[in-house]
Amino acid sequence: MKKKLIDTISLILLIFVTFIFLFPIYWVFQLSVKPPQLNLVEPPAFIFQPTLDHYIYTFIRPGNNLVNLFASIIEASLGTLVAFLFAFPASYGFSRFDFKHKDSLLFWFLSLLLTPPIVFTIPYFILMRTLNLSGTYFGIVIAYQTFAIPLSIWLLKSFIDSIPYEIEEAALMDGAGWRTILLKIVLPVCAPGIVVSMAFTFVFCWNNLIFPLILSEGPTRPLSLATFEYFTVTGATWNYIATCSFINILPPLILFLLLRRYIVRGLTFGAVKG
Amino acid sequence: MKGPYKLLIFPSFIFLFVLIVYPLAFSLYYSFQYWNLATSREPLGFIGLGNYLTIFSDPRVGKAIITTFILALFAVLIELGLGLGIAILLDRDFKGIGVFRALFIVPISVAPVVAGLIFRFMFYQGIGTGIITYFLNSIGISTPETGVLGDAQTAIIGIAITMIWRWTPFFALTLLAGLQSVPVELIDSAKVDGVSSFQLFRFIKLPYIKKILSIVFIICFMMHFNAYDEIYAETRGGPGDATTTLSYLLYWEGLVYYNIGVSAAMTWLIAIILLVVINIYFKLMFRGERV
User: Fold this and answer.
1) Do B20 and B65 fall into the same domain?
2) How many domains does chain A have?
3) Is residue A272 part of a domain?
4) Cβ–Cβ gap B1/A97 under 8 Å
5) Does residue B85 share a domain with residue B10?
6) CA B137 to the chain's CA centroid
7) Best exposed site among A42, A166, A262, B278 by fewest CB in 10 Å?
8) pLDDT band at residue B259 under the 50/70/90 scheme
9) Which residues form the domain of A17?
């Protein structure tokens, strides 16, 4: 009886809290399909005839932001791929071997994830300008590696740690080389973990603002940054800001919901298994 | 085990080392040079500690340090409290609880800059009214004429609310993971001994999540200390310098005023503050323990 009462109270509280935390997402979505004259009316307009005009304007005709969406996809994907190529062998090394200063080295990687990215921006800005790489995908993808590689190493290591070592040992006995072991055994066995790690790295790249802010121009501007063009001296075109924002939310949202079992591990860089 | 660990780790290590050392060396060198990119393409020469003297005599720097710590400490403590409360609710076991656990992922997936844009719209006050402003006014809380984000006193609260919205679910889900890692036998035997649910939480579950809490807290504190995106989206450090954090001040100095020398010196100031904070934290948290 008492348990039932507490359950009911918890449920009511949970519904209330969940409503508050989801409301901003709903509000940006409804803004993206709202007739502009209703954006900021008092009292707020909850019921209206939705329109797809804003999506059509931003992504189809003239679709100025389509190129930014592509830039977001390319930058985050390349950033993830490059990070994986470096991090996969390294995470295996950290997982399976013991050596001097291993803990300090891992800790150094972790500390990079907590460093304010702003401290890298000005040197990178000057460097990329000097090398004529400002406004290229290359510069942004390289800058992403400051967090993408450490993040991938920590996540991949946490997954490799959890697969048994016996298979590799047997392969070693049979005289298999390290390359064979990595590519033919660890890669397939660890595939789910690799997918999860890459997805998290992708989201971290996708949600990054500061490196594209200083290193991108025109067509290489990712979607989140291009949104700011809709703030002008005469006011903000909120509906276009909302369509870009909502589209920008979707890929991380879908990935995180699909990978909800791993969300705690991903967000704590593999430190908490969850 | 012996093996080619050097070969496996070196590529990442060297690549990152270059990526990190270059900016640090750059900042160290130019922090002793006079260089304003707006007036000169090349540095104008060695000025000793000139840039460091500039930042220490600049009242904005002290103010930015205070703003940064206030934002980081207050927001994180509120998130911790709210997050722990939600985690306790989510730890209960009834039908449909999985849906709630999944829904709390949603705010975490939103890019900080997008969170900033959404709240900027909801806080809006001007030609028309944003929904938070409308709600506050209708329950009798008056908002400043320039809007929550447009007033020097309340802007920082607006930024904090944005961050609290995004990060509370992070605490809730990580602490939930901690609560659920408590072995069932431990809880059962405590129940047999007749402990109250408060005692169960205080003496059995809380010690269990302490380790997770210490990791999550420092990650979250650093993310707030480095906060930049929300401020860029919502207030651009203003009004005045009311929401100018250290990160934002550095950006402003280096990439708006192009004072490369001064911003380089500021980089080292931030690095030193961080080293001190992290060292104190780990000394307090892991007394004698190996991290």
Assistant:
1) no
2) 2
3) no
4) yes
5) no
6) 29
7) A166
8) confident
9) 2-57
Same domain, B94 and B20: no
Tell whether A29 and A162 lie within a shared domain: no
What is the rounded CA–CA span in Å between residue B99 and residue B117? 27
A positions 71-100 inside 8 Å of B (CB):
86-87, 89-90, 92-94, 96-99
Query: Largest Cα–Cα distance of chain B, in whole Å?
Result: 77
pLDDT attached to residue A247: 95
Chain centroid, CA B276 distance in Å: 17
Q: Does A145 touch chain B (CB under 8 A)?
A: yes
Contact between residue B38 and residue A134 where contact means Cβ atoms under 8 Å apart: no
Q: How many Å apart are CA A90 and CA B242, to the nearest integer?
A: 44
Q: Tokens representing B155?
A: 């802007």
Mutate to test the interface with A, among B6, B7, B10, B12 (most CBs of A within 10 A): B12
pLDDT digit string, tens, across residues B75-114: 999 999 999 999 999 988 878 888 999 999 999 999 999 9
Q: How many CB atoms lie within 10 A of CB A258?
A: 12
The shortest CB-CB distance from B8 to any of A90, A125, A126 is to: A90
Closest CA to B148 of B224, B73, B238, B65: B238
A237 and A214 within one domain: yes
pLDDT exceeds 60 at position B1: no
Contact A224 B113 (CB under 8 A): yes
Confidence class for position B288, pLDDT limits 50, 70, 90:
low
Sign of the torsion formed by the C-alpha atoms of A131, A137, A138 and A141:
positive
Is the same domain home to B64 and B22? no
Give pTM, 2 decimals: 0.92
- CATH number for the domain spanning B183: value is 1.10.3720.10
Number of domains in chain B: 2
Model pLDDT, residue B182: 82
- At residue B59, what is the residue type? P
pLDDT along chain A (274 residues), means of 10: 81 93 95 89 86 92 92 96 94 86 84 86 88 90 94 91 83 80 85 92 94 91 93 88 95 93 84 73
Q: How far is A108 from B107, CA to CA, in rounded Å?
A: 29
Are B177 and A121 in contact (CB < 8 Å)?
no
Distance CA A151, CA A146 (A): 9
Domain encompassing residue B2: 1-30
State the DSSP code for A183: I
The nearest alpha carbon in chain A to B18 belongs to A146
Of the listed ranges A214-223, B9-18, B198-207, the least confidently predicted one is B198-207
Q: B206: number of CA atoms within 13 Å, CB side?
A: 9
**A35 and A113 within one domain:** no
Q: Does the beta-carbon distance from A272 to B11 stay under 8 Å?
A: no
